[in-house]
Amino acid sequence: MNKIPMTQAGEKALRDELQRLKQIERPRIVQAIAEAREHGDLKENAEYHAAREQQGFCEGRIKDIEAKLSHAHVIDITQIENTGKVIFGVTATLINVDTDESVTYRIVGEDEADVKNGKISVTSPIARALIGKEEGDEVAVTTPGGVVTFEIDSVEHV
Predict the structure, then answer these.
(1) Distances from the Cα of 34 to the Cα of 53, 56, 73, 89, 117, angstroms
(2) Which of 10, 12, 13, 130 could anchor a disulfide with 6, C-beta 3.0 to 4.6 Å?
(3) Neighbours of 82 (CB within 10 A)
(4) Beta strands 91-96 and 72-75, pairing class
(5) Looking at residue 77, what DSSP letter applies?
């Protein structure tokens, strides 16, 4: 499996979720299964089946997170010299050439992406178009609404 790029904050969020799942959710689900078993016939016990389904989701998520963390390539952007080039982890401010509207995105790993908060996945069309470009460059990005041209106004390592 290839290395999965992620920021330090992304790695911490995954580790926190893993800890919560293992130390809080897993024991709660095991307790719910035990209580449901006490109610008798398991074939017609909705509580038991719901708890077992929750257990399946929880165990699946634990395995998913552990796999991602084992293949994580954590990048601390503050330790990389700012050359004005767009790379993983930077925060880029873009200006729409047609409308002069400004938008700021941080390029993060897939699990960290949150467009509403200005975080886009490194695999998104915008990020792929930006990677390797420098401040002042114009970049054409194909969006569902058509091609949008942005000028890279600034690149920050924060």
Answers:
(1) 14, 15, 39, 45, 41
(2) 10
(3) 15
(4) unpaired
(5) G
**Residue 145, both tokens:** 């609404």
Give the three-state DSSP class for 109.
coil
What is d(CA 106, CA 92) in angstroms, rounded to the nearest whole number? 6
Q: Are 152 and 133 in contact (CB under 8 A)?
A: yes
As given in the structure block, the two tokens for residue 127 are 């990020």
Residue ranges of domains in the chain, CATH in brackets? 4-75 (1.10.287.180), 77-156 (3.10.50.30)
| Residues 6+ positions from 151 with CB-CB distance below 8 Å | 94, 95, 97, 136, 137, 138, 139
> Taking the model in full, what pTM does it have?
0.80
Query: Alpha-carbon distance 143 to 87, whole Å?
Result: 21
Residues with Cβ within 8 Å of residue 49, at least 6 apart in sequence: none
- Three-state SS for 137? coil
Structure tokens at 136: 């002042």
